[in-house]
Write a structure and sequence with these properties.
The complex is a heterodimer.
Chain A (H helix, E strand, L loop, with lengths): L5 E5 L3 H12 L3 E5 L22 H9 L2 H4 L1 E3 L4 E7 L2 E6 L4 E4 L1 E4 L3 E3 L16 E3 H10 L13 E8 L15 H15 L4 E6 L9 H10 L4 E4 L4 E4 L5 E7 L4 E7 L1 E6 L1 E3 L1 H10 L26 E3 L9 H19 L10
Parallel strand pairs in A: 1-2, 1-7, 2-3, 7-18, 9-16, 10-11, 10-16, 11-12
Antiparallel strand pairs in A: 4-5, 5-6, 8-17, 13-14, 14-15
Chain B lengths: L21 H9 L11 H5 L10 H10 L5 H5 L7 H5 L6 H11 L3
The chains are: A alpha/beta, B mainly alpha.
Amino acid sequence: MKSSKKVVTIGGGIAGMEASSFLAAMGYDVTLLEKAGELGGHLAKWEKLFPTMRLGKEVLNFLSQGIYENVKVLCNAFIERIDRELDDFRIYLADGKVLEANAILVTTGYDLFDARKKEEYGYGIYDNVITSADLEEFFSSGKEIRTASGKTPASVGFVHCVGSRDQKIGNVYCSKVCCVTAVKQSIELKEKLSDVKIFCFYMDMRMYGMHFEALYKEAQEKWGVQFIRGRVSEACENSDGSILVKVEDTLAGRPMRLTVDMLVLMVGFVPSEGTKKIGNMLNLEFGPNRFFKTRDQHVLTNVSNVKGVFFAGACTAPKEITHAITDARAAASTIASYLEQNSVEKRTI
Amino acid sequence: MINFGYTLPSDRQIVYDKNNRETATFLRSKEPTFNSCIQCGTCTATCSAACFTDFNFRKLLLLVNRGETFEIIQELQKCMLCGKCLLVCPRNVNTRNILLNLRLYYAF
């Protein structure tokens, strides 16, 4: 059943792709706007996914099925202005295109925290301090894992909660995925470099997902990863380029000094630049953590403060892939309900 | 009485019901961020005094909270009030003010 109703999705990451496919399958006329040259968002950068270690590419292939046939995909799209006419929208793109929409789905996602802001960890200052995204880049490119001077690292430290749960840099929320990502990346490092010693410095191990705890246990039992409960206060560079980590081993109750050849900072989520830009354009409300504020935290999680504008994915809060996909499907059904003139707030079954 | 060489060992448990937790109540009223600590240990990791003594601010806060304040006066003397802990705390606990108030409370 084809509908004449038009939906424009802003952001072609996981949530934008999945919601657009679902809306197209329901018969709506869907246009998906992506600012980059191709769809996939952050997913395209991750080689293997927790907790199954399957390839990110497989999930991306699943999300891509039929999308170019059923959805009008516009990549390299730059939105200049959005006008509202009664309940409808008109979206002006930089290349002169004008799109009509009866509903807008915002899926502008997140950016990774800029680790240079935590100067005490030395990212951008010391050569052997890298981020979890940099390490993933080693994995996806198939490059050998080497320190800046070309040596195989004998020891690697992972610092959890970089840019998360930290009032000093203004992000009080937990980014959810970093704990399990550190566990995942530890295992991958051990698979590639069997002699490497790995230390994870954590405040709490938040293994909330089904099978996350099993992966944590595997890292301990099978791979011998050391988990040290304490938040790193600072990292310093030794003359040979190795990194000295200062932490309290809180369970031993004593300060600890430890040298690693490489230090990986587990960077968290921040609202993306696109989230800020589109939010300001559409007068969308932001929550205290600067992600979009949903109309209700339990029951209206895809609904914005502006009639006809909806949310999905990590633009409202940090989410892992599974959650972004289910959120996208929920947004698609919320939009369909809205376009069929049902109230999004009241149940009229 | 024949002395068999046995003694009753002292109780190692934190007897929370009996412990005097007035210090914690006092600190809460003077410095509400006392409640915000999540025991991450960043204060102790950066502490100048902790490198050379057994001073441990994180543990001190925890023990005050539990009412275990028997050796607190010796502990308070180990802090040099440099304030580095204040700079690194992810929960913005006003560590320095807590320590100053503890010194006032125990009047030295």
